[in-house]
């Protein structure tokens, strides 16, 4: 009886152990740990699953930490055509990369190798922009706080021009004009952090990626993080998806070697959890310090006024003690929020530029679940309605362009009356010259064409190609009028 009971009890325990093992194996993309886990994982799951379905997001991963403990890790959806998203899947984190570059700079400050108020030329003696005198005034602090005078526009344009080494990229800035006086005002520019990346290389006497690997990734056990996609020898980096005319399309990123410090570091949800723990605990992780408390405080200190109550610190934005940064590349999105004792990381392997505010709302909803127990309710109207409208408009315009070409080459010329001639001339001036010229002239004044076509493919290309076609048709119409010697005569 005793042996039988023990055998049954042992089998029961063994079954329980195997069952638990299988549950963990089946749910390997989920982890909830911590001694006081107050996070309702079912609410997070329901919220994220609803949003990725509503927004047609291929895949996402979430990390939540509390103090020095990981509270939640999970991957959702797919990381590629045939791969599942897990907390270990690396994703390009966009401008969240700036916080890594700022951390590296502050490590070198801790070591006495960099002074924040020293000019960039102290560390890069050859550094120069179009204004040689102003170039001498730009300090490390100015770059960290986005107060160098470099423009958002030039920082955007540099994204499509980052297929050079970091040094070649910064050397190519010699003709870049400052749009503000050095130190005068905040203006976000990727170029600030690309320059800081080269400063790290020169001061540490090693490539930027090697420094980040050695002094940030390794001590924080960030085993699925890279500062160079070529280091991912097992091909685990998530495929990025872009929204083209409302449809998600897998795409490859351009080469961005020169932009890594400002926007192209790669990391996973699991690794970002470790990173957030170090940020929340004065630079401490697993008993090891990656930065002193004073420097970490300085890193998070509000400095440059962005708008209302929001300030830029060093690689982070600060609003009422909530520290955060988001990032978007041509085909990925990320955001990190440090709010009180909690840290949340959201990584998404797609970008929908026209609905990017709804991507931001996912983080807002996550943070509200963590802090208050319930997600916020957002406008749940069809996020692709705008695409439907734009697609219809583009199709109509293309149809009209095709019809115009047909009329030029095939349709017989009707008898020209004075009114008809005036209407034709006015329509040519307005539709075939004025509107296209306005579009082609003013859009690149606001945002570079290379950025438009890179971040809004399809629609961005149409926005450029259609005006060109209209101009060509206008030229053909004028040529036809001249050939036929159309003259405006009185009735």
Describe, in plain words, how this protein is organized in 3D.
The protein contains 17 helices and 17 strands. The protein has helices at 2-26, 41-54, 97-110, 132-137, 140-145, 152-157, 166-171, 190-204, 208-217, 260-263, 269-280, 293-299, 356-372, 385-409, 418-446, 449-455, 459-483, and strands spanning 30-31, 59-66, 69-80, 83-84, 91-92, 240-244, 247-251, 266-267, 284-285, 288-289, 304-307, 310-312, 317-319, 322-328, 333-339, 342-348, 350-351. The strands form 4 sheets. Strands 1, 2, 3, 4, 11, 12, 13, 14, 15 and 16 form a 10-stranded antiparallel sheet that branches. A 3-stranded mixed sheet has the order 7-6-17, with no helix packed on it. A hairpin with a 4-residue loop joins strand 12 and strand 13. Helix 3 packs across helix 9 (208-217).
Give the gist of this structure.
This protein has helices at residues 2-26, 41-54, 97-110, 132-137, 140-145, 152-157, 166-171, 190-204, 208-217, 260-263, 269-280, 293-299, 356-372, 385-409, 418-446, 449-455, 459-483, and strands at residues 30-31, 59-66, 69-80, 83-84, 91-92, 240-244, 247-251, 266-267, 284-285, 288-289, 304-307, 310-312, 317-319, 322-328, 333-339, 342-348, 350-351. With 491 residues, the protein is of the alpha+beta class.
